[in-house]
Design brief:
The protein has 92 residues and is mostly helical. The chain has four helices and no strands. The protein has one domain (4-86).
Length: 92
């Protein structure tokens, strides 16, 4: 049985890996911006599936725009979403 803590750890690990992949496209000269055109919808879709509901929709939209915008690939959208979801203020 997968516990809530295991899910949190898995989402954090996957999120960090996805953030690193997003940064790698920024490091490759000439290929970076073209790769972002392909990577942006894939990354947004994965984020949407990892975090269902309004949080996922907002995060996926922000991620999509961030990946397509030149110079913003360093923003760790997945990790920020994880922090917002699990470390943020508890809501009813």
């Amino acid at each position: 049985m997968i516990t809530s803590n295991k899910i949190k750890q898995r989402q954090l690990f996957i999120g960090i890996v996805m953030d690193i992949i997003g940064c790698i496209t920024y490091v490759i000269p000439g290929l970076g911006e073209f790769a972002d055109i392909i990577w942006a919808p894939i990354s947004a879709y994965i984020l949407l599936k990892m975090y269902p509901g309004q949080v996922g929709r907002v995060a996926a939209t922000v991620n999509f725009i961030e990946e397509l915008s030149p110079g913003f690939d360093f923003i760790p959208t997945y990790t920020i979403t994880w922090c917002y979801t699990y470390l943020g203020e508890k809501r009813d």
